[in-house]
Amino acid sequence: MTADVAPAVRSAPTAPAVRSAPTAQSLRAAVVTFLGLDAGTSAPPAPASYEPLAHDDPAAALKWLNSWGCRIRYPRAGEPDLFGPALHEWTARWYKLLPEPGTRLGELTDDDIAPLGECYADLCALAAGTPGRPRTLGATAASKLLHGLRPYSLVPWDEAIARKLHGARDAAAYLAHQRLNRDWARRVLADSGLDEEALANLYGCPGRPLSKMLDDYAYITLTRSDTR
User: Fold this and answer.
1) DSSP 170
2) How confident is the model at residue 44 (pLDDT cuts 50, 70, 90)?
3) Which of 40, 58, 133, 149 is least enclosed by beta carbons within 10 angstroms?
């Protein structure tokens, strides 16, 4: 089965009206719900879980993607590895254009964001699976891998989030998603009067990046509403 591929499109998609930006209060409610902190059902994740993925370890990247529900089959002994060589090629082309590892979402400039659309589109088309059942990485997994490589600055999405916020999952929509979340991050920080670390501590999830908290917000308000 072949995953959806997001082509490199430079023109902005025709998008639905953007939902209201989160406030510090509404973001906190979404994060608490996402993590189950309101029900006491799960412990806050360890800050170490937000270290950027190594760019030169496809096996670790594949394991990480599958831990996020991507369900990409691992090659069996003797099977050709499609994903590893393809990711190495992608890394050689695009890795140097990603934001610096320590850059935070609210610090991104338009110049930082500009190359990310084609970077994302190329990653969407990356070969994965096995020769007998080839697939591409696809839009959701590509956004998750970019988040894994740059957890403090790049925001993932799923089909529901992309459709409801941007009306597409192509390169232009991915750019729009990063700009939108950059602007939301700045607004939340200004609204709270706190820095990112203090905000995470206040919400009971020390070390959780604002990029992930905003993804939590989108999941609770957009994705989960699709399943109810």
Assistant:
1) S
2) low
3) 40
Give the rounded distance of the alpha carbon of 91 from its chain centre. Answer: 17
What residues form DSSP beta bridges with 67?
none
CA distance readout (Å), 223 to 11, 143, 215, 216, 227? 26, 15, 10, 10, 7
The answer as to whether 3 is a domain residue is no
Residue 213 lies in a domain: yes
CA distance 35 to 43: 8
Query: Residue 77 is part of which domain span?
Result: 24-226
13: Cβ–Cβ under 8 A, 6 or more apart, which residues?
166, 167, 168, 170, 172, 173, 176
Convert the pLDDT of each residue in 107-147 to its tens digit: 999 999 999 999 999 999 999 988 888 899 999 999 999 99
For residue 96, tell me if it sits in a domain: yes
Q: Is the pLDDT of residue 13 over 50?
A: no
Query: Is there a contact between 35 and 205 (Cβ–Cβ < 8 Å)?
Result: yes
**Residue 52 located in a structural domain:** yes
Number of domains in the chain: 1
